[in-house]
Write a structure and sequence with these properties.
Two copies of one chain form a homodimer.
Chain A lengths: L13 E4 L1 H9 L5 H14 L3 E6 L19 H8 L7 E7 L5 H4 L10 E6 L4 H14 L2 E6 L7 H12 L5 E5 L7 H18 L2 E5 L7 H10 L4 E4 L13 H7 L8 H16 L8 H8 L5 H8 L5 H10 L2
Parallel strand pairs in A: 1-2, 1-8, 2-3, 3-4, 4-5, 5-6, 6-7, 7-8
Helix pairs in contact in A: 2-10, 6-7, 7-8, 11-12, 11-13
């Protein structure tokens, strides 16, 4: 059963802007302070509920000098943009299992500018994710678990993972279509499973889509209509490979009058169009369709894009050779 | 209830390539013979069921010298590409109510290279459409009725229209989202209504989408899954404004082994990419999102695009002023 209808307001919905985090994968997190600051102000005006500033990646594993600062999201760097963030919008960062130093890099929530930590993992890493989540919950943060590449997991694994997360301290469990392989029918089928566990254990369910088959927005609003409440989007769809659900589409769809598109349109004019024209690459193209249809990581399509290739038939054969 | 599932073959499905017809609205139907001929061969290799060559528009209303020949689709022009079309693929043309001379421009089917005529109309023109359809059926053609701009019709009108078409000689009734205003939920709701009448009167149902909200493919496969059987698509989404459902996405989705994407990928490399690079404009952009969300004809967004404007906020205000 759908929850609400196309005219109704759902007060449980939370919109998360992942432009800096997922979009940062396209430009090595090298956004100007002005860009991030203007996006922050835009999100507030548009009614966005959470803004994700990037990753909190391990500085042991990754060299700070080789990446923009939003790969690390140090407290002082976030504060330089948001001050004490005296707004209704919350701030999140993402921490990847096995790529973060969660025991040293997170301070107690009461001293932190961060509200929510989203723990990303593959399905075999759920036990590690649970450990991190429970630790961060103990520090006072809201937490999510973003199980990536879910289109490659089997249903038994998913049931087991959802049970483990159900019994953890996590607040939100995210269905993440990393490969852009889901279509509305399969996305909804998975979402219903997540929602069943969510109901049983009192967890909210989230959706994060990719646009390999031009379905990120469609999958987002379809899973939303069945009860998913946390939804990710990015300005002008900026995100790895084919990109994400466009925030402007999502805000235009939602009926709660707290959400508006106008300021985002201005941000797109002033910041996103120039960013794209500067050569940063993202967005749907046939190569992403092929990896999405084949349910594969987009890395080969990203390389194909970087090489400005358009020999799709050769690429298709390369993909089939590497099966 | 969905019909079949994501693994099953539905033998009732018919794929129609509308590249020359809907794409022709982007370049005044000025395709080279080589382009049309290669697309014809590509469609055959890909298993496409119908190829639409364009409109059969009135030569009294429109000057032949001012448009490419595919606005008129004269018998000899189609034959110059397809010979006697000794293939499994059928050929269609579109005739707009009040813009065609159906009594003089259609010869008996037994002498014609055309298999199917798709009669396009707005909902208030249904009586005229029925007259044309019954006439063409008498000549021996398969016919469809494509009720355009359906997102602006009310349900009472739609019920009445479907009843009139049900009682006509039409073979297929098309749900046409001319404004790209539908989302999967509303598209499926409408499709179910069409399917109900289709079942009652023994008519097939078709779907033709536009990509204003990046939902043409999503709406196509969602309505398909509930029983729609005729689906339109175009190479690389080429079509008026934001374009249509991409044929490459649709062929990749369908499970019947008769459909394949490979030859279309080659056609995209060799013909569609150069066409786009030559300056012919189509495809999703924020201006189309705005007219789609506002449930409006895309004409203002097309003009905005032609002027290479990116001042989306001004455009948005202009749209609201013209409500």
């Amino acid at each position: 059963m759908r929850k609400g209808n196309l005219m109704s307001v759902r007060h449980d919905i939370r919109v998360l802007d992942a432009t800096i985090r997922d979009g940062g994968l396209c430009n090595n997190f090298e956004f100007s302070d002005e860009f991030v600051s203007e996006l922050y102000k835009t999100n507030i005006k548009c009614g966005v509920d959470y803004m994700e500033f990037g990753y909190r990646a391990s500085r042991n594993l990754f060299n700070e000098n080789e990446h923009g600062k939003w790969k690390f999201c140090k407290e002082e760097d976030v504060r330089a943009i948001v001050g004490d963030n005296n707004t209704d919008m919350k701030i999140s960062v993402m921490a990847d299992v096995d790529r973060c130093d969660y025991k040293t890099d997170f301070i107690p929530k009461k001293d932190s500018i961060i509200d929510m930590v989203r723990v990303a993992c593959y399905i075999h890493q759920i036990p590690s994710a649970v450990e991190i989540i429970n630790y961060l919950n103990g520090l006072g943060y809201e937490t999510t678990c973003n199980i990536m590449a879910i289109s490659q997991a089997n249903f038994n694994q998913i049931d087991e993972a959802l049970k483990m997360l159900g019994e953890s301290k996590v607040d939100v469990i995210y269905l993440v279509d990393s490969y852009g392989a889901l279509v509305p029918e399969s996305a909804v089928e998975l979402a219903k499973k997540y929602l069943e566990y969510g109901e049983k254990y009192g967890k909210q369910i989230g959706f994060h889509g990719h646009n390999n088959q031009k379905l990120a927005y469609a999958n987002t609003i379809e899973t939303l209509s069945y009860g998913v409440s946390f939804v990710d989007a990015t300005a002008m769809s900026m995100g790895r490979g084919a990109g994400n659900c466009a925030m402007e589409l999502l805000l235009g769809f939602l009926k709660n009058p707290k959400y508006s598109t106008y300021s985002l349109l201005r941000f797109i004019e002033k910041y996103m169009i120039p960013l794209k024209e500067s050569g940063v690459q993202w967005g749907y193209a046939p190569q992403y369709m092929l990896t999405g249809q084949l349910n594969r990581h987009p890395e080969e399509a990203i390389r194909f894009t970087e090489q400005n290739r358009t020999d799709y038939t050769e690429f298709y054969k390369e993909l089939l050779d590497n099966f």
